[in-house]
Specification:
Elements: E1 7-12, E2 17-24, E3 27-35, H1 47-69, E4 78-84, H2 88-105, E5 109-113, H3 114-120, E6 133-138, E7 143-150, E8 153-159, H4 165-175, H5 183-190, H6 212-228, H7 232-263, E9 267-271, H8 278-291, E10 294-296, H9 307-319
Parallel strand pairs: 1-4, 4-5, 6-9, 9-10
Antiparallel strand pairs: 1-2, 2-3, 6-7, 7-8
The chain binds 5'-O-[(R)-(carboxyoxy)(hydroxy)phosphoryl]adenosine and zinc ion.
Zinc ion is lined by residues 114, 118, 139, 272-273, 305.
């Protein structure tokens, strides 16, 4: 029988953060995150190292989440986990753990789409958008414009044909000699810089994004500049960060405005790791005033990967009796609503 105020343990392990959260009657009671610093020196996530770290962290992280929420294992009504998209080895750790725990407690299992979870993170705290709303979902692996009709009905109306916005921050950061993930560092350094260098934006019709051209143009620009001035990056780091960041955010916002106009929507949300970017937040709030938008920006702790967002999705799925069985497997390329996805 369905419990109307379910207690659910949620697990996120899609990339390089091991996280567990407990949600009770739709209220997130704990959200523990173990970051993996091991990748910083490699300039990106090393999949093999990520899965090993998840193995090490998952038991203590789950224990802490249950303890903080003051919930015993045998009080749980369901276990949720990120089914995809993500790195296969990382997803396998969360999926196997969730399956074993659900089996031993004889409770249902809930599989969650990581990108839908980023969007529904807006329903953890107030103010919450009402349906339908438009969400710019920007992470390390995805850049999507999503029309959100309900918690279980989302439609991707725009996506990137190559790199994701977060990937552009991280890869360009690598050219600048910054450790992974470079996004938050570029954000911080850009505050001390000026938009001094101009990089061209892609000329793509419709709602399609592209960031690989920008990445290449920054690389060639730096190669040329370093030939003339070997310490060019060191001497211009803040201005370079500011120029790159302004360009990426302008690319994101241009299409967001087109999408909002096309669909006649003025409730606009952002989600995913890049939604933590202070310049994106600032620009969005400015535009909101000019265009009469109602803007929704998640709390910092719910922007980057966390199990709180998996938990809120699991809450809706539990109420909808949307469970998976023990034969479930991770889906590294799981897309939002495959039937409506472009
Ligand atoms: O959503 P997320 O935590 O993981 C994925 O699902 O990929 O997003 C991680 C991405 C990384 O590329 C990281 O550099 C970027 O989000 N990011 C930022 C900021 N904080 C995280 N990018 C720009 N500015 C930030 N403040
Ligand atoms: Zn994510």
């Amino acid at each position: 029988m369905t419990n109307k105020s379910p207690k659910i343990l949620a697990i996120e392990s899609s990339c390089d953060d091991t996280s567990a959260a407990v949600i009770v009657s739709g209220a997130v009671k704990s959200n523990i995150i173990a970051n993996q610093e091991v990748h910083a020196m490699y300039g990106g996530v090393v999949p093999e190292l990520a899965s090993r770290k998840h193995q090490e962290s998952i038991v203590p992280v789950v224990d802490q989440a249950l303890k903080l929420a003051e919930i015993a294992k045998n009080e749980l009504d369901a276990i949720a986990f990120t089914q995809g998209p993500g790195l296969l080895g990382s997803l396998l750790v969360g999926c196997s753990f969730a399956k074993s725990m659900a089996m031993s407690l004889d409770i249902p299992l809930i599989g969650i789409n990581h990108m839908e979870a980023h969007i529904l993170a807006h329903f953890i705290e107030d103010p919450k958008p009402s349906f339908p709303f438009l969400c710019l979902t920007v992470s390390g692996g995805h850049t999507q414009l999503v029309l959100v009709h309900s918690p279980i009905d989302m439609q991707v109306i725009g996506t990137t044909r190559d790199d994701a916005a977060g990937e552009a921050f991280d890869k360009i950061g690598k050219y600048l000699g910054l450790p992974y993930p470079a996004g938050p560092i570029i954000d911080r350094l850009a505050k001390e810089g000026r938009h001094k260098f101009t990089f061209s934006k892609p000329k793509l019709d419709g709602l399609e994004y592209s960031f690989s051209g920008l990445k290449t143009s920054v690389l060639y620009f730096l190669k040329k500049a370093i030939k003339e001035e070997p310490d060019f990056i060191k001497n211009n780091l803040n201005d370079l960060c500011c120029s790159v960041q302004s360009t990426i955010i302008a690319i994101l916002i241009d299409k967001l405005i087109i999408a909002a106009n096309q669909h006649g929507i003025n409730q606009i949300a952002i989600a995913g790791g890049v939604s933590a970017n202070s310049y994106l937040r600032l620009q969005l709030n400015k535009i909101a005033k000019d265009l009469n938008w109602k803007v929704f920006i998640p709390a910092m702790q719910y922007c980057t990967d966390n199990a709180g967002m998996i938990a809120i999705n699991a809450h809706y799925k539990y109420l909808n009796q949307s469970f998976v069985d023990q034969s479930v497997t991770p889906q590294p390329r799981m897309s939002i609503n495959p039937c409506t996805n472009i």
